[in-house]
Write a structure and sequence with these properties.
The complex is a heterodimer of chains A (509) and B (315).
Chain A: H1 4-26, E1 37-51, E2 57-63, E3 70-78, E4 83-88, E5 93-99, E6 104-116, H2 142-153, H3 159-171, H4 177-183, H5 189-202, E7 207-214, E8 219-222, E9 225-231, E10 236-239, E11 252-257, E12 263-266, E13 268-283, H6 284-295, H7 298-301, H8 309-318, H9 321-335, H10 344-355, H11 357-381, H12 385-409, H13 423-463, H14 466-474, H15 478-490, H16 497-502, H17 504-508
Chain B: H1 3-7, H2 9-15, H3 21-32, H4 38-42, H5 44-53, E1 61-65, H6 74-78, E2 84-88, E3 98-104, E4 107-110, E5 115-116, H7 118-129, E6 142-145, E7 164-170, E8 173-181, E9 197-201, E10 208-213, E11 216-218, H8 236-250, E12 254-262, E13 266-273, H9 279-284, H10 289-297, H11 305-314
Antiparallel strand pairs in B: 1-6, 2-3, 2-6, 3-4, 4-5, 7-8, 7-12, 8-9, 9-10, 10-11, 12-13
Helix pairs in contact in B: 8-11
The chains are: A alpha+beta (509), B alpha+beta (315).
Chain lengths: 509, 315
């Protein structure tokens, strides 16, 4: 086969490029399109207490651990003078703040940024909890508990349905002497949930208390909602303590597991925690980047996101140049376009990115036209080549400065960005155009000039596409695909489009 | 033309063996012309020396101007010559060439009828020295050489300028030839894309057969009205032999050789080109590829020039 080596190389490059890109899209969740945004929830806990004088302060606060269905984008603790440690015992995670002494009201913050991510795997099943002991119910409650359990037992098949049946019974609106007896001294939903666990234990059903934070945008002084989990013999199943429905509430995060208090303060009084929730949209890329970091993917460490922002911005432009170069390859070797120089149109196109296309075209034409006029005058002076080129360069720069000044005075600040034009290229354009003008006539010079501007405009369109810009920056490996295509075109021996026209006389016969 | 051809015109071009620019670059110039040999043809001074060493006739070199300083003595350098040609050693496409046909009132009369003062001529040469017409803009030198007194054979079919015979030579065998006739539009230049008429030559007999001007077939010269076809080129056998020799000179496998016919001196080799254009196919109304492929397929190319010329004539 012709060019087998080259074709295998190109195939390899495409495979590597597309493969890396595929991995990044499917595993790391990097978005293929630039506009994709993810909802990011910011959960904030504000802890407040009054410290006792001259007593070491220790605050223990339970915090969420890897909430199912969410990715932790960022997490931070605000605790000026406190020492901070976090602890994770496999079920619960807690933050401990400690200070040798503190005075007056103290405020600590815990902030968590979460992004929805359905692909987060559920936490692994925990070992079956320790054997339950049937509580020794007081005389007064025992008959009521037994009655509820017995009624439920007849209507259930397994521990889960048994437990839910008990919950249904406890929550039924129908006046039931046994239930009202069990509810009698209950003050809060949390106490009620604890009571339900207490009753479930009588039926030998392991259950535990969950503290759940519901994600609702704009919550200011929110509280944790008590929830239940019943062990069905294999895994914990969340159950609504009010309705016995299965599952966690919609958009909710398990904050703490267990009957113990979420916040405990030693060396302080009036400890209280408040929760607030806000939602905002964030670019998928930064979310994915965080997620990749969390997953410990080495790939993202070598991504361009690791660079300082300023360098990143430079690369956002630079990485587009290969696309422009590829366009030139297409236009010259496949279409057969003629323009001044090889890569000059791409550099002009880069300049157009700064000035925006119409301004760029207008300014380019203006500077080149004025430059040409002056260049013809220089011809009359019969200068040597290099001094003449230098003179054209100096004049072009002065022209640009003048245009910028004038447009600034006129209040058109767009003109100022003409200073970013690669002026050497403008000067060379002027020189080349004047040569072509003299040797092949104004018609040819105009044709080539317009051709260059056309190529530059096409280059601008390619290089200002936000989709392509996003693709090459987030998936720089796609440039390997561009490289492969360029290599293949390097061995393209077919006709150029313009040659079909050039050899048209051969077609006529 | 069937709809298939209309839809996919390249199929018909392929069928006719027309070679495109990409194919020429990838398949011939890149493959058969080692880059290191390019200076031999890019520098006309070296080309001329090589040709002289090999006994190939070239226009005599009167003088070489290499540095600006020499321009002060321009009058003395040119004193002996009534007519001459000034050209850049590294020029291409006929750019930067001045043909001085004589003098009047201390001015140099050009073939175009223009008259230049000595300062203007010096400025032109200075432009050549600073690389205005050279490939890549590198500093260059100017050659002053014999003005070809071209054969009156072409008087009827050329307008000013010098018609030249361009032959494409592959592996030492001439494969296709054409005459390039300057026109009013081409301003005395012999490049087809500048408006010269290209005329195909039958390799076997040396008789012209068809013309093309601006991609359109023509039978008459657009300016003089002379008939283009049927001109028998003198010294045809010699011309073929001369071009075949050029390959050995440079070591380049795929070249274009430009030859002019002098009234008294016969065929003179003007220059060689390592990237000959494709227009010759239009002038000959024939693709280069079948001939090139045939020669590519041969295991060995005959050593002797006579055999190569015979091979060329059989193509």
């Amino acid at each position: 086969m012709k060019n087998l080596h080259l074709k295998i190389l190109a195939l390899l490059l495409v495979l590597i490029g597309v493969g890396l890109c595929y991995y990044k899209v499917t595993r790391l969740g990097l978005p293929l399109l630039p506009t994709e945004q993810a909802d990011v929830w910011t959960l904030e806990a504000r802890i407040e207490f009054k410290a006792r004088k001259d007593v070491p302060v220790k605050v223990q606060f339970f915090i969420p651990r890897q909430p199912a269905g969410y990715t932790v984008v960022d997490e931070n603790f605000v605790s000026s003078s406190y020492g901070l440690t976090t602890e994770d015992d496999g079920v619960r995670r807690s933050a401990q703040w400690a200070a040798r002494s503190a005075n007056g009201y103290q405020v600590l913050y815990y902030r968590l940024h979460l992004a929805k991510d359905p692909s987060t795997p559920p936490p692994p099943a925990e070992a079956y909890p320790i054997k339950l002991e049937t509580p020794d119910y007081p005389e007064l409650l025992r008959p009521a508990v037994t009655a509820v359990i017995e009624e439920a037992r007849s209507k259930s098949a397994d521990p889960l349905s048994f437990g839910r049946e008990i919950l249904l019974r406890l929550n039924s609106g129908v006046a039931d002497a046994n239930v009202s007896l069990l509810r009698q001294d209950i003050q809060s939903p949390s106490e009620w949930a604890k009571r339900q666990i207490y009753v479930l234990a009588g039926a030998n059903i392991p259950a535990r208390l969950l503290h759940v934070l519901q994600l609702r945008d704009g919550v200011k002084h929110g509280e944790l909602t008590p929830w239940l989990e019943i062990h069905d013999g294999h895994a914990w199943q969340a159950v609504n303590p009010q309705t016995a429905e299965l599952g966690l509430p919609h958009d909710a995060v398990v904050w703490h597991v267990g009957t113990g208090p979420v916040l405990s303060v030693s060396g302080g009084r009036f400890g209280n925690a408040e929760y607030s929730v806000t939602r905002h949209a964030q670019e998928m890329t930064s979310v994915a980047e965080q997620r990749a970091r969390q997953m410990g993917s080495r790939l993202m460490e070598f991504s361009l996101f690791g660079l300082p922002v300023q360098t990143q911005n430079v690369y956002r432009v630079l990485l587009l140049v290969p696309l422009g170069a590829f366009l030139i390859v297409l236009l010259r070797n496949v279409v057969g376009f003629k323009s001044f120089g090889t890569f000059m149109p791409i550099l002009i196109a880069l300049a157009f990115r700064e000035t925006k296309i119409w301004w760029g075209l207008a300014l380019f034409s203006l500077v080149v036209a004025l430059g040409l006029m002056i260049r013809f005058y220089l011809e009359y002076l019969k200068l040597l080549l290099v001094p003449r080129l230098a003179a054209v360069l100096i004049i072009v720069i002065m022209l640009m400065a003048t245009v910028s000044l004038l447009s600034h005075k006129l209040g058109v600040d767009r003109g100022v960005s003409v200073a970013l034009f690669p002026m050497v290229i403008l000067a060379m354009t002027v020189e080349r155009m004047s040569l072509v003008w003299e040797e092949s006539g104004p018609w040819e010079a105009l044709q080539q000039g317009v051709g260059s501007l056309l190529v530059a405009s096409l280059g601008y369109l390619v290089m200002s596409s936000s989709l392509l810009g996003h693709l090459v920056f987030v998936f720089p490996e796609l440039l390997l695909v561009v490289l492969a295509a360029t290599l293949l075109l390097g061995r393209y021996t077919g006709y150029r489009l313009t040659e079909l026209w050039r050899f048209r006389s051969a077609l006529r016969e | 033309m069937s709809w298939v051809d209309r839809l996919m015109p390249w199929r018909k071009l392929r069928e006719q063996g027309i070679m495109g620019m990409n194919e020429r670059n990838a398949g011939f110039t890149l493959r058969y012309n080692p880059r290191s040999y390019y200076p031999l043809v890019d520098d006309k001074r070296i080309t001329k020396q090589l040709a002289l060493d090999a006994g190939i006739a070239v226009p005599a070199l009167y003088a070489v101007i290499e540095i600006e300083h020499q321009l002060e003595n321009l009058r003395r350098i040119l004193a002996d010559y009534e007519d001459f040609v000034v050209k850049p050693a590294h020029g291409s496409g006929g750019e930067g060439i001045l043909v001085v046909t004589g003098r009047s009132n201390g001015r140099y009369r050009l073939s175009s009828g223009l008259a230049l003062t000595e300062d203007e001529l010096a400025h032109h040469i200075s432009n050549i020295l600073s690389g205005l017409y050279s490939l890549g803009g590198l500093p260059d030198c100017a050659l002053i050489e014999y003005r070809v007194d071209f054969d009156p054979l072409f008087d009827d079919v050329s307008f000013q300028g010098v018609p030249d015979i361009r032959t494409v030579v592959f592996r030492g065998v001439p494969v296709m030839a054409m005459i390039r006739l300057p026109t009013r539009v081409s301003d005395g230049k012999a490049n087809l894309h500048q408006g010269a008429v290209g005329v195909g030559i039958d390799l076997a007999t040396g008789v012209t057969f068809s013309g093309v001007w601006r991609e359109m077939p023509v039978d008459h010269h657009p300016d003089t009205g002379g008939t283009i076809a049927g001109i028998r080129i003198p010294h045809w056998e010699d011309i073929l032999a001369l071009t075949a020799l050029c390959d050995d000179l440079t070591g380049l496998g795929y070249i274009g050789v430009d030859i002019v016919l002098d009234r008294t001196l016969g065929p003179l080799m003007l220059e060689m080109n390592a990237r000959p254009g494709l227009s010759i196919q239009i002038a000959n109304r024939r693709g280069l590829l079948p001939r090139l492929r045939y020669l590519e397929g041969l295991n060995a190319i005959p050593e002797s020039i006579a055999d190569r010329v015979a091979l060329a004539r059989s193509l």
